[in-house]
Amino acid sequence: LIGDATPPGEEGTPEIVPAGTGSVKVRWKTNEFSRGTIEYGPVAGQYTQSVAEPLYMKDHELTLTGLAKDSRYYYRISYVDPAGNSGRGVERSFATGAESKQLYLPVTIKR
């Protein structure tokens, strides 16, 4: 930490994983320990919601909630390391799908 003047950086592209009705999980990695914050909203460049991590880590995961189905959302990840250096990723977007319903199919097992 002493003399650390380099902000954390993202490694690779964040992964978007459906997490139930109206929510997704965003997973990403950084090159050093940091706390992440995601700002997001339905209009590019206008973030109406945010969620932040409480701990410093390299493997990150945050859940975005309150999402409408069949919509596009824009988000930006920012991060800060224990020395106070901060960085910000580029704006990205993802689309939510329609709500899924369970489908049961009959199965026949031959012995």
Describe the protein in words:
With 111 residues, the protein is mostly beta strands. It has strands spanning 10-18, 23-41, 49-52, 57-65, 72-80, 86-88, 92-95. Strands 1, 2, 3, 4, 5, 6 and 7 form a seven-stranded antiparallel beta sheet that branches. It is globular, with a radius of gyration of 18 Å. The model has no long low-confidence stretch (mean pLDDT 89).
In short:
The protein is mainly beta and 111 residues long.
Summarize the main sheet: 7 strands, antiparallel
Low-pLDDT runs of 5+ residues are: none
Number of helices, counting only DSSP H or I runs of 4 residues or more: 0
- Tell me, briefly, the overall form: globular
Work out the helicity level.
under 10%
Helix and strand string, N-terminal first?
EEEEEEE
Which percent band covers the strand fraction? over 45%
Instruction: Quote the distance from N terminus to C terminus.
Output: 65 Å
Structural class comes to mainly beta
Strand tally is 7
Instruction: Using the CA coordinates, give the radius of gyration.
Output: 18 Å
What is the average per-residue confidence, as pLDDT, rounded to a whole number?
A: 89
